[in-house]
Amino acid sequence: MHETPYEDSFFDIGACVGSLEYFEKEFVQQAVAEFSRIMKPNGKFVLDIPNIGSPEFEISKLIEEYLGRQDQFDLSSEAFETILDAYFVIDKKEIVGPMIQYFLIAK
């Protein structure tokens, strides 16, 4: 996810759903930079992150821990959006259960 075999500006659309919550800040930063690298300018990208602190997230975190898939994500939505701002325009943001979905446009 943070190193892909694709050329620069390869995709018009892309998505990363249900994955970033398993990684810490450094890896997430690398992944977002890679998403940007492989997206064409004005390409559309959708991703989600945990809505840390929400009651729904706390329940899903317990379930994930029970299943042996502990969340590693350690960024507030504000800190994550700062990372995004370097590469994408946030077109829309929605809270869906324990996750925050971002609809992005590549710069």
Would you mind describing this structure in some detail?
The chain has 107 residues and is α+β, with helices and mostly antiparallel strands. It has helices spanning 25-38, 55-66, 77-85, and strands spanning 11-16, 39-50, 88-96, 99-106. It has a four-stranded mixed β-sheet. The protein starts with 10 loop residues before the first strand and ends with a strand.
Distinctive features:
107 residues; alpha+beta; four-stranded mixed beta sheet; 3 helices; 33% helix; globular
Portion of residues within helices: 25-40%
Could you give the order of strands across the largest sheet? 1-2-4-3
Q: How much strand content do the residues show?
A: 25-35%
Query: So what's the overall shape?
Result: globular
Count of individual helical segments: 3
Strand tally is 4
H and E string: EHEHHEE
Spans where pLDDT lies below 50 across 5 or more residues = none
- Note the main sheet: 4 strands, mixed
Helix/strand structural class: alpha+beta
Instruction: Please tell me the overall pLDDT.
Output: 94
In angstroms, what separates the terminal alpha carbons? 19 Å
Task: State Rg.
Answer: 14 Å
